[in-house]
Amino acid sequence: MRSFGTAALLIALTVLTGCGSGSGDADDVPTITTRPSTSATSAPTTASGAPSSDASATPGTSSQPPATETSTPPSPPETTIAPPTSAPPPDEARGPTTYADAIDRINAAATAGTTVSTARFVTPGDDVYCLLDDPVIGPTCELGNGFITDPRVCGADSTDRVGRIETFNGRPRPVCNADTIREPGAEVVRPDAAVVSGDVSCGIEPFGVTCIDRSAEVGFFIGKGEYHVF
Prior knowledge:
By secondary structure, this protein is of the alpha+beta class. 18% of the residues lie in helices and 25% in strands. A hairpin with a 2-residue loop joins strand 13 and strand 14. The longest helix has 20 residues.
C-alpha cells in the first residue's frame, strides 16, 4: 500500500511539471502588444503626422478667406457748357484803352462808314451826345442812359455814377454829373462813322464813341456801362 501511494505521488508531480514549463523556452510564451487609445477629440493626422487642416474647419464653412467687396466711386456730375456768344464777358473792354488803339478804331470806323465834319452830334437813340469845340471842357461826350457806377471816382458827389467825360486842362476826366450839356439840334451820326472837328476826331461804333485830341495826344471812350480815359 505504501509503494502504491509513492508511485501515485510521483505521477502527480510529473503531470504538474509538464503543464507548467513545457519545453522551457521564452519564445513559447505568447506576447500581448498594447496601443494607446485615441481620444475622441484628437484631430486626425496626415501621412506626415501633422494635424489635418480639414479637422479644424467649422462644418458648413469654407476654408478660403471671404471675398472682399469693392465699391465703385460715383461718377462725377456732368458739366453743361454754355454755347458761345458774341457778347463780350463783363470784364472784357469793348472800347479802346490806349491812345494808339483809339487811333486805329477811329480809322477803322472811317473806312467802314462815312466821315462827318461837325462840332456837335448825337448817336441814334440819344445814347451819346458829344460837344467837340467847347473852350473849357471840350471835347466832351455824355451818356443819355447806361451811366457807369464808380464810387471810387464819384465819392460823396450827388451821384455815384459816371455819365460824362470832359477834357479839362488838356486831360480827359470822368464826371459824376447830375446836370447835362445837351442842346437840341445836334446832328445824328450813325455807326460806323467818323466825326472830325479841328484837331479832334471821333469814331462812332454801335457800343460807344471814341474821341482823341491830336494836339494833346489824349483821348477817351464812353459807352453804356463802360468808359476809359488815356
